Amino acid sequence: MGDFEGTRRPSGDTAPGTNAVEAQELALFDEVFAVEREQDLADIKALMRRIQKDPWRGRLVDESRYEFAKAEGRLKYTDEQVEDGQWEADDLDFVIEVLRKEKIDKYFSTVADKYPQAMPVPDSMVRLDQEADIAEKLRSHMPVLIRGNWRMGKTSMVRSLETHQFGAKHSLFIDAMTEYLGEEESLEDFQNHFGADSVVEFIVEREFGDVKPKDRYPKEDEIKQQMTKSRKSPFEFLNEYLAQKDEEMFLSLDEVVGFIKQPEKMKYLASLKDLSQIRLAIVLHRIASFEDSFQEIFVGYETHFVRPLIVEEVGRLVRKPLDGTKITFTDDAIRRILEFTGGRPMEVNQVCRALMTQFSEHKNYRFSYRAEDIDALTGKKYWELQDAFRSAIDNYRQVYNRSMNDVERALIDRLILEGEVSTSDMDADAVQPLIDTTFVAKDETKGVYRVNGTLFKQVLLGLQH
Questions:
Q1: For residue 183, what pLDDT band results from cuts at 50, 70 and 90?
Q2: Where are the beta strands (DSSP E) in 176-329?
């Protein structure tokens, strides 16, 4: 049906029953986005003032150029004529259609904005079973590694653990890269400074949370002096503070992969698991060439790779932002989205944004999205999808070129070439990291491996050509 910009009617050569569906959809659009002359009179007048005498210069002058066009005498109607409703019928029809389109654009773009792009989600609605399992391990004093490739939802996992399982009062999140002072920093200096500001803010918030922000600085200085005087590292100081209160807390460290070429600093961060009052989760990217080093450094940790979404979770991720709207996705449409994205949340959100964002070249405004609407988007050529799925495409290239080793790339290439490969015809140990990181799916029923997500497959085919 397209984007309704021209109130396009269904064509006569569609499949049986399709015309009725299209007509029903158009009728609902007419009802929801109707422009009423009395109710919308102020908006009608505002646009009517911008109608130009010479349509070859553009029927509507740009709002920012209105005063200039008025001074030049290029406007078709005077203010008095607009106020008195003295305008031509075809101009009224034009203005009503512009307003109608604006209503439609605003409606769908507002919904599209509810699908975050490559941003951590602190209150995730998916992978809740995995989240609960990780929380159980943490509470039993088991340190964990949250693993996966770039933009797979690792940070969302630890932020949601804070929100759902431990609470802000008992949680501290640190982005390791904000603590990075360069490779030249000594290990001793690193141990003394890493996390210091975050620990101080955490303690001050707990002890003086009701104090005005401007009055907290003396309190922060006081805590810093106590930390320095104790001759303890920030986390040892924090651990002692918690022990005195007989409390425990959840600490998550993100982006520690930034210290990948400084193993002694990474070992220090890994050693924080031994602090008695701290339940530690470390976010660690999967990079094949460093996996042996990681195994030596993170001894005693339990690894949890963020898994791909199942169809019910894709449905939840797509449909929850639609609450209070008239927009729906059929079950078949949800399954198509899963097939295209491989169940990776960022890509699921990008599909929805591509369909509903005002300036998307792929926008297709509908109240009911069906499988064929998803196919119309995902069936396009790889190069046509590059703008809408730029972050996913760049990420896939990086994963293939930097995160996988030669053996893993060869396995992926074979799966792309053959489509499916029997599980008995591939080394299970070699393919497991690709399953862990969501890029290969194992069909237990058929006993085969296949590439997970047609977008990923298209991107790699593009790389090969």
A1: confident
A2: 249-254, 278-285, 302-305, 328-329
Q: Measure the CA–CA gap between 70 and 74, rounded to whole angstroms.
A: 6
Question: What is the spatial distance between Cα 453 and Cα 275, in angstroms, rounded to a whole number?
Answer: 41
Q: What is the pLDDT of residues 355-381, one digit of tens each?
A: 999 999 999 999 999 999 999 999 998
pTM recorded for the entire structure: 0.90
| Whole-Å CA distances, 134 to 97, 147, 152, 292 | 53, 12, 17, 23
Q: Where are the alpha helices (DSSP H) in 63-216?
A: 66-71, 79-83, 89-112, 128-139, 154-161, 187-193, 196-208
* Fold classified for 128-305: Rossmann fold (3.40.50)
Question: Which residue from 456, 336, 334 is spatially nearest to 392, judged by alpha carbons?
Answer: 456
- Give the model's pLDDT for residue 180: 82
- For 392-462, CATH gives 1.10.10.10
Residue 147 region by backbone torsions, left for phi larger than 0, else alpha for psi between -120 and 50, else beta: beta
Q: Is 175 exposed, middle or buried (0-12, 13-18, 19+ CB in 10 A)?
A: middle
Q: According to the CATH classification, is domain 311-379 in 1.10.8? A: yes
Q: Report the C-alpha gap between 104 and 363 in whole angstroms.
A: 12
